[in-house]
């Protein structure tokens, strides 16, 4: 059980990190669009 969870955690580390960075970029982009529209 521990090995399975550890394997999933290790395997999901790279994918999870990539997903997290992509989500952060998307959130920042959306915030930038909202701010730019509010300023205009």
Query: What is the first-to-last residue Cα distance?
Result: 55 Å
Helix content: over 70%
Structural class call reads mainly alpha
Tally of individual helices: 1
* Element string (H = helix, E = strand): H
Silhouette: rod-shaped
Describe the sheet with the most strands: none
The number of strands is 0
Segments where pLDDT lies below 50 for 5+ residues?
1-9
Mean pLDDT: 69
Beta-strand share of residues: under 5%
The rounded Rg comes to 17 Å
Count of spatially separate domains? 1
Describe the structure.
The structure is a single chain. With 40 residues, the protein is an all-alpha fold. It has one domain (1-40). Helices cover 95% and strands 0% of the residues. The chain is built from one helix and no strands. The chain has one helix at 2-39. The chain is rod-shaped, with a radius of gyration of 17 Å.
In short:
With 40 residues, this protein is an all-alpha fold. The chain has one helix at 2-39.
Record the SSE blueprint.
Elements: H1 2-39
Provide tags for this entry:
0% strand; 1 helix; 95% helix; 40 residues; mainly alpha; disordered N terminus; single chain
